[in-house]
Amino acid sequence: MLEIHNLHATVGDKEILKGIDLTINDGEIHALMGQNGAGKSTLSNVLVGNPAYTVTEGTVTFNGRDLLAMKPEERAREGVFLSFQQPVEIPGVSMMNFLKVAVAARREHLGLEPMKGNEFLQMVRERRKLVELDSKLTNRSVNEGFSGGERKRNEIFQMAVLEPTFCILDETDSGLDVDALRIVAEGFNKLRKPETSAMVITHYQRLLDYIRPDVVHVLRQGHIVKTGGPQLAAEIENRGFDWIE
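Given the sequence above, the corresponding structure tokens read:
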């Protein structure tokens, strides 16, 4: 699904990614761990096309296509989804209209018939229940007046509605209590399909107790310095990052 080769990227004049090589196959979940400033969120922003980040070298292909040549909205229509570390409030843009436009654009891109109004509303109701999101919140502007936990649930709710094929969860566990973490993680797990892949960015084992990764990578100073199975995350939880060379 995703092939990253020798990826270098900068923010301003500072190089953050210094040669990332990573392959994620259909159906796989890869966890990305590392200390602050290692480059984890930079990688996620590069993959979704954030214009603040500049790719200076390397290639990224997504389902055989050049991801870096696509505009951010094209990447979204292709099925790339980012759950933000700090979801922003968008006053004046209603949740329902936001989702209607996004779903219509993705279905058109995939050559599918437009979804009828009653079908859309039924889907929204079903997907909202998966993450236990209060129905009142879907009638507001995007994230307006939402608590931190509600914003994270809303991100997974949006993912449920849009049905992306590659999901990036950027520190989705940040600021969540145990119950909210469980609800968000279980919502993600219920939405998984055999062809759905994900990159889970986290500092801690606790999210990976719910979303079990196939592969764990450790980033340090813009490089992947270690790769292993789920047991690597447990070892990091016990020993920290300093033992990794």
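The helical segments are 40-48, 72-78, 95-109, 117-130, 148-162, 178-191, 205-208, 230-239. Try to locate this feature in the token string yourself.
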